[in-house]
Design a protein that fits this description.
The protein is an alpha+beta fold. The chain folds into two domains: about 100 residues, Immunoglobulin-like (Sandwich); about 400 residues, Glycoside hydrolase 144 (GH144) (Glycosyltransferase), CATH 1.50.10.140. Helices cover about 35% and strands about 15% of the residues. The protein contains 16 helices and 20 strands. The strands form eight sheets. The protein has a four-stranded antiparallel beta sheet, with no helix packed on it. Strands 2-8-7-4 form a four-stranded mixed beta sheet. A hairpin with a 2-residue loop joins β13 and β14. α3 packs across α4. It is elongated and about 120 Å long. Keywords: Signal. This is Ig-like domain-containing protein. Pfam families: Big_5 (PF13205), Glycoamylase (PF10091). It comes from Mucilaginibacter aquariorum.
């Protein structure tokens, strides 16, 4: 028992000694490590581009802007290059010089930019302060540079410029014409797909080229023989009418859409307008030209215009399909680009239509009249503000509107009013697009970035098409010539190529087409020529069938 007590006492003593430590005093608590100090974040304070502040979007910026970014604290300069990046629209990085002021709280960015280009300056939260703090919020600055006003080509006379534009644009139809059929490719990326209507425009361009000496008469005749021979022996037709597109090698239909795989009467009309013009031009007594005229007459007389009344209705229909019949069921009703179809239908000596079809189907017995005033200009016919400018071009490549009138309008007044309204709309620029001006105008059907649209004052997406203003030369000569000079001299480095002017451009959200379309290139050549000499108007209006047909529809003109 005694031993147990002694053991218990020794144990208690050991516990006491252990608790007191070697010094005989209580052990201290282990030290507490203080939490790390987080550097203070900082924020963006001010922005100026060339000394001005207008938020985060800037247009018409010069090519060497000074961009000042001010923050609430000095910056760590080693983080600037990675945290502040400048890129163009395609995502390519742009270098810049950076300097500092205000004790390094302001960074000054100085890049060298290209004209008419969109850039983004991104500032990320990777930007650090001198005390290692992080930028609170990232932000982006949008910059769009302005037009470089220097001339891109040496100045030449207006006549020389018109020659150049016609000659260069003609290469699209001649040098780039389909090697088998000679017809015009739909666009510069179309391969074997050729366009019926665009080929009609190209045929008229061929006449211009021969007449101006761009090619010889023999060369023009040879190309016409190839085209007409292909149309007569290989190209598929439906009741004499051609499809919108053909395969340029085989002549088979290239469907325009699932249901549009047959006849297109409007496209056929543009082709016939061109063929009749060529028939009148190649009027030589020799066998070659006589045979060409006879073959054109065969194609012309084969078109069953009256059949496209779809059961003898008092209207013409645009499409017919061998597999879908009249499923599209689109009437050709004015006012639009379809006047030529009714003129040719009334002019046919084999399948003509009576005046009531024109009055009811095209003119709507007067419902196509407008009569309203836009920008101080009264518009006789058509939709509000005129619609796309090709309404004033396609049918009037051959039909001479000068002093031409019927029960519904004076067509010289109509086309001049339409062009003036389009011009005045672009100058007024109600949507405030950068780049619209008295020199940069013209809304019509064209490519747009990522697509295609029929631009007009009521469908304005910021895209200008050179064909619109240039093809209006007969109607707005001063305004159109100013635009042509602008396209060539000021935008020529971006808009002038192997076949003349590219299709369209947007200066507000910079984009430049790299495409050519037959239906846009053709009117440029033809309407320049009608402005200069009236050649195509004189030839087409000299057709005896056209004279008879238009008189029968109630048209009056000294040219009839």
């Amino acid at each position: 028992m005694r031993d147990i007590k002694i053991f218990a006492g020794l144990s208690l003593l050991a516990l006491v000694l252990f608790a007191c430590g070697k010094s005989g005093t209580p052990n201290p608590k282990p030290p507490v490590t203080p939490p790390p100090i987080t550097p203070s974040s900082f924020s963006f304070f001010a922005l100026k581009v060339n000394g001005l502040n207008s938020g985060f979007t800037y247009t018409n910026v010069n090519k060497t802007p000074v961009i000042k970014l001010t923050f609430t604290t000095p910056l760590n300069k080693t983080t600037v290059a990675s945290a502040i990046t400048l890129k163009d629209k395609a995502g390519a990085a742009v270098t810049y010089a950076a300097t500092y002021e205000n004790n390094d709280s302001t960074v000054i960015i100085k890049p060298t930019l290209a004209a008419i280009t969109k850039y983004t300056l991104d500032v990320t939260t990777g930007l650090k302060s001198a005390k290692s703090g992080s930028l609170q919020s990232a932000f982006t600055i949008n910059l769009t540079t302005g037009i470089d006003s220097t001339n891109k080509f040496a100045a030449i006379s207006d006549n020389q410029l018109l020659d150049l534009v016609q000659k260069q644009t003609f290469k699209y139809f001649y040098d780039f014409g389909h090697p088998v059929s000679g017809l015009a490719r739909e666009r510069n990326t179309s391969g074997d797909v050729v366009t019926t209507g665009g080929s009609g425009f190209g045929i008229m361009a061929m006449v211009v080229a021969v007449n101006r000496g761009f090619i010889t008469r023999a060369e023009g005749l040879a190309r016409m023989q190839k085209i007409v021979g292909f149309l007569k022996t290989k190209a598929v037709t439906f009741h004499g009418a051609f499809p919108h597109w053909l395969n340029g090698t085989s002549g088979a239909v290239q469907p325009f859409s699932a249901q549009d795989n047959g006849a297109d009467l409007i496209e056929t009309s543009y082709l016939m307008q061109g063929l009749l013009t060529a028939r009148q031009y190649f009027n030589g007594a020799g066998t070659d030209e006589s045979t060409l005229r006879a073959n054109i007459n065969t194609l012309w007389n084969n078109v069953e215009w009256d059949w496209f009344r779809q059961g003898n209705q008092n209207v013409l229909y645009w499409h017919w399909s061998p597999s879908n019949g009249w499923a599209i069921n689109m009437k050709i009703s004015g006012w639009n680009e379809g006047l030529i179809a009714y003129v040719l239908a009334a002019s046919s000596t084999t399948h003509s239509v009576p005046k009531v079809v024109y009055d009811n189907g095209w003119a709507g017995n007067g419902s196509m009249k407008n009569g309203a005033t836009y920008y101080g200009v009264k518009l006789p016919l058509g939709p509000a503000q005129g619609g796309p400018l090709f309404f004033a071009h396609y049918s009037f490549l051959g039909i001479n509107p000068n002093n031409l009138a019927d029960a519904y309008a004076n067509y010289d007044e109509q086309n001049k009013a339409h062009s003036q309204i389009n011009y005045k709309y672009c100058v007024a620029n109600p949507k405030n697009y950068y780049g619209y001006s008295a020199d940069s105008w013209g809304l019509t059907a064209s490519d747009i970035e990522g697509g295609y649209t029929a631009s007009s004052p009521t469908n304005d997406v910021g895209v200008i098409a050179p064909t619109a203003a240039i093809s209006s030369l007969p109607y707005t000569p001063t305004e159109s010539m100013a635009a042509l000079r602008f396209f060539y001299y000021k935008l020529g480095d971006k808009m002038w190529g192997d076949y003349g002017f590219y299709d369209a451009y947007n200066l507000n959200n910079p984009w430049f087409a790299n495409s050519y379309l037959a239906i846009d290139q053709g009117p440029i050549i033809v309407m320049i020529e009608n402005y200069r000499s009236g050649l195509l108007w004189n030839l087409f209006m000299s057709c005896p069938e056209v004279k008879t047909g238009m008189k029968g529809l109630g048209f009056t003109s000294p040219n009839l």
